[in-house]
Write a structure and sequence with these properties.
Helices cover 38% and strands 17% of the residues. The protein has 10 helices and 10 strands. α6 packs across α8. The structure holds adenosine-5'-diphosphate (ADP) and magnesium ion (MG).
């Protein structure tokens, strides 16, 4: 029987996740020299049957996130530490803390200051997100909820893709159909035409994120969900920012192609000559 308070000291609540609370914690006994006295994030889900007992769905997504995270190890994916059930009836998932917060907040701050993101910085982050996506796609896992709010930054501004709560392993070699999950702003056209969510749907979401990095606005936005769906399905590529280079804008446009087959894979993006130039610059 594990007492969570024996293992971790709770510092403060940093968020309310879709299925539970998100806490900043400190390990009581160093887990390893490396993580010694380092702040960590603990996501917990109360599994006890009670008035506000979690749905089977919440339990499954928490367990899935724990299980998936434990199999992933990549410099651009939030590092997993451990997960366990505690004697107070909670499922606890411990992961690295990203001190830089999320990209959504970062972009909001830029917008408030009427600043824009420098192309070199933008591409550096774009490359790191692509590397994370390439890694999970290679493992036949789909993120399914890629958005600027789920892209975290460390204090050194390294990108860490997180929140794999609804990520799933592809059940078979073929892509599977799903119920609508994720955030409407980032939903790809195929989702509304009963086509399966696949790797290219993650690429669409990535396109929306990079678009957001260039304009500080959602790629697709509308007053209500119906108008949003119509825009996603019909509107030709949204107005691009004039502040960025043509090759970058072309890549963003390619990720936002209506037909998933016309979008590049994460691997193809990393092989693009303009992107490769930047990778070389960063080495
Ligand atoms: P959900 O989107 O399902 O509600 P998240 O995993 O995105 O759950 O976590 C909710 C919030 O908690 C995030 O928006 C972020 O502010 C914070 N958070 C989650 N994980 C981390 C982390 N590893 N480092 C820093 N903040 C985090
Ligand atoms: Mg999230």
């Amino acid at each position: 029987d594990i007492d969570v308070n024996e293992k971790y000291t709770f510092l403060k609540k940093i968020g309310k996740g879709s299925y539970g609370e998100v806490w900043l914690v400190l390990p009581n006994s160093p887990l390893s020299i490396r993580s010694q006295s380092k702040q960590l994030v603990l996501k917990r889900l109360d599994l006890r049957p009670s008035a506000n007992s979690p749905s089977q769905n919440d339990i499954e997504s928490a367990e899935r996130e724990a299980k998936l995270l434990s199999t992933l190890k990549h410099p651009n994916i939030v590092a997993y530490i451990e997960s366990f059930c505690s004697n107070d009836g909670c499922l606890n998932i411990v992961m690295a803390y990203c001190e830089g917060g999320d990209l959504y907040t970062k972009l909001k701050e830029k917008k408030a200051k009427k600043e824009s993101l420098a192309e070199d910085q933008l591409i550096e982050w774009f490359i790191q997100i692509c590397m994370a996506l390439q890694y999970i796609h290679e493992k036949n896992i789909l993120h399914r909820d890629l958005k600027t709010q789920n892209i975290f930054l460390t204090k050194h501004d390294i990108v860490k893709v997180g929140d794999l709560g609804i990520a799933r392993a592809l059940e078979s070699a073929s892509e599977f159909a799903t119920t609508i999950v994720g955030t409407p702003y980032y939903m790809s056209p195929e989702i509304f035409s009963q086509k399966p969510y696949g790797q290219k749907s993650d690429i669409w979401a990535l396109g929306c994120c990079v678009y957001e990095m260039t304009t500080l606005e959602h790629a697709f936005n509308a007053k209500d969900i119906n108008a949003l769906v119509i825009k996603i399905l019909r509107e030709q590529t949204p107005q691009m920012s004039k502040k960025y280079s043509e090759p970058l804008i072309d890549i963003i446009k390619s990720m936002l192609k209506k037909n998933p087959d016309d979008r590049p894979t994460a691997k193809q993006i990393l092989q693009n000559s303009y992107i490769k130039q930047h990778i070389l610059r960063l080495l």
